[in-house]
Amino acid sequence: MNPATRAAVAGARRSPRRLLLTGLAVLVATVFAAGAVILTATLRGEVTGSLSSVPAGAAYSLETGGPSDGADPAAVVDRLRAVPGVDAVSESRSGPSSVEAGAASGSWTLSTDPMTGPLSTLDPLTAGRLPSGPGEVLVGAGTAERTGLAPGALVGIGGRTLTVTGVVPLRSGNGDALVVPDGDPAATALYGGRIAVAGSPDPAALAAVPGVGAVATADEQRDADLASASASADALLAGLSVFVGLALVAAAVVVASTFRIVLARRTRELALLRCVGASRGQVARSVLAEAVLTGVVAGAGGAALAVAGGWAVSAVVGATGTEVPELVVPWGRLAGCVLLAVVVTVLAALSPALAAGRTPPVVALGAADATGARGPRARVRVTLAALALLAAGALAALAVELGDALTGTALAALSGMSVFAALVVAGPFVVSGAAALLAPLVARWAPGRIAVGNARRMSRRTAAMTTVLSLGVGLTAALLVAVAGASADARASIDRNYPADVVVFPGTVDRDTDALAARLDAAPELTARVSDGIVLVDPVPGADPVAVRSAVARGAGDASAAFVADMREQTERAVGAVRGIGLGLVGVTLLVAVVGVGVTLALSVSERTREIALLRTLGLSRAASRRAVAAEAALAGAVAAVLGVVIGGAYGVLALAATGIGAPTSGIPLGQLAALAAAVVAVAVAASVGPVRRAGRIEPAHGVVAA
Length: 707
Prior knowledge:
Blueprint: H1 3-14, H2 16-50, E1 60-64, H3 73-81, E2 86-100, E3 106-113, E4 127-128, E5 136-140, H4 141-147, E6 154-157, E7 160-168, E8 177-181, E9 191-199, H5 203-207, E10 212-217, H6 218-265, H7 267-275, H8 280-319, H9 331-358, H10 361-366, H11 378-402, H12 405-438, H13 446-457, H14 459-497, E11 502-505, H15 513-521, E12 526-531, E13 534-539, H16 545-556, E14 560-563, H17 564-607, H18 609-617, H19 622-658, H20 670-687, H21 689-697, H22 700-706
Helix pairs in contact: 1-2, 1-8, 2-6, 2-8, 2-9, 2-17, 6-9, 6-14, 6-17, 8-9, 11-12, 11-19, 12-13, 12-14, 12-19, 13-14, 13-19, 14-17, 14-19, 14-20, 17-21, 18-22, 19-20, 19-21
Transmembrane segments: 236-263, 287-311, 331-350, 382-400, 420-442, 463-488, 581-606, 627-658, 670-689
Domain ABC3 transporter permease C-terminal: 242-361, 585-700
Organism: Pseudonocardia alni
């Protein structure tokens, strides 16, 4: 180990706080990355352990053509029962069905199960008993909780009245669901296609049964189901990886800025190393060694926090009585997260390390304390920013012209990243310009003058805070605009395609729409008409909503009915879920940016101790020094809020255009964007609380001596 590296390691041991501040942004990003890995591994373990639709007691899984291909599944089942070696046969059927259940009447999911024997897939009942035959039904546990249905309750399906005998846990999502025994007439119109067979029959004999399309062993079918489910988990991980990458990019910008500040404070130390014989390469390698150490500590800490958080969440949720899947911790992938944190940290520190190695000893000994005060190279930066903006414009135009939603969205995202790259390059000029605009407004307020002066003098440092914040704000603004536009488009689509309160689609039995409309119109609560092969139903003025739902379910028979009010509610619920998940994902990038603001200001105040002390000596009060730091944070937050909202809002509109939705019909959500901008400024000021308190504690004499 060369003397420079030994000095770097010794410095890290003497000042662990510096190591922590430098790697804090990487730690947050690693927590997110490791959490995504643990989540997807746990989901994969859950789905591969229980989501295969093949019953545990099945020996073979058969595919049939179904009624649309001329095959009668019921007849196929009867023929299979006659095959030697077959112990049991069950055809799984599932689909929407109109259910009359008072105020909860509507289109529910109806499925079949043999109820007993080796081919039953039901979990133990939570209440009641199993149906003993046709005319009895099980209700899903979630449905029972939402509707109040309990054993003994009656529901209507296709003009028949069925009795609820029990409550069973079902994986039916948010929809309402019922389970009837195999062979119940209510399941006649349901979609089938897969038949499970128990026993030890000859597979060739099964394949020879008329109506059987394909024969697979139960294990083969389970493997296929598991591969499909695993692919879903991999797709989730791929989607999360995009946001992990954004968080790491933000962390890299923060780390690069932090290393520049730290190295500026160590200029004399590095110069002394050069004076005693350390080469440029040794100095640069010592900085990179410190970056490796920072990355290892931050990455390992982030992975450990993610594992601890996963166990804590599992314990808390499990304590509420909710069934929680067993937490899967993929140690190999977590090691990959730590390695990724190290690589990102080293790459972020590369430029500051090379700059430190290029500093001649004599110049370093006489250099200023803050290299951030060095002006940016305008010609190079402006040229690079212009090229990035040109690329962004070309990608945006191509995204709209292609007309393919997936490719267009990807190109729009690349265009946005190009704009971010331009912002990183031209950030110092943007910050200087914004500070110049604000200067007249704060000319009579000393803390404001100091903050604006620092922003102009240390434009590179301030720009590092604003660009990362702009990335987080821009992602959030784009999400809000895109979700608002997609939500408005979904509502407009519902109103356009369903011009009535209830839409009834012909079933496999009730194919005559005129007869179906006449039957529905005969109810005193309804008016019905046929339009384009479907039946449109509206309630008469003043009709009781519960009576309307019951009348529709009673008159629809085996036809499925869609209540437009339910569709609107489901759409709003889905949009809200997408908005919440999206805000949570991009919020990690915003969190990394806020951490960067706090770390940068903390190091900045520490570096400017002599300057602040001198200002205190000249009459600046303790409160005014605090306000100056807070004003600097507010300035960074305000610039980031304006840039992020404007650029993000534009890219939200671009994403809508690239996906074919077009301009948002309900307009831009200005209120949400204004709230976002105000929140960013407030959070940036809140992140400066620590540096503000430190600035207030600097005494004039202490500051001069410390310098």
